[in-house]
Here is the input.
Amino acid sequence: MTGTNRHFLLKARPAGPFEDSDFELVQTPVPVPGNGELLVKVTHVSIDPAMRGWMNAGHVTPVDIGAVMRAITIG
Here is the structure.
């Protein structure tokens, strides 16, 4: 399978309204599944208020700077 895998990285912790500079879109080749693995194409992504808390350093499970923003997805 060929294509592009897109994911958003958290570049900075937002202070106030989100800015484009708080995130980075990274595109990589779609990986080839190995033995016993499968590849799922995400068709829906949940964008919800909990994400704002995950971006705060004081959150119990914060998203690290440079890490992929997590979300609930359907594929």
Summary: Strands lie at 4-10, 23-29, 44-45, 73-74. The helical segments are 50-54. The longest strand covers residues 4-10.
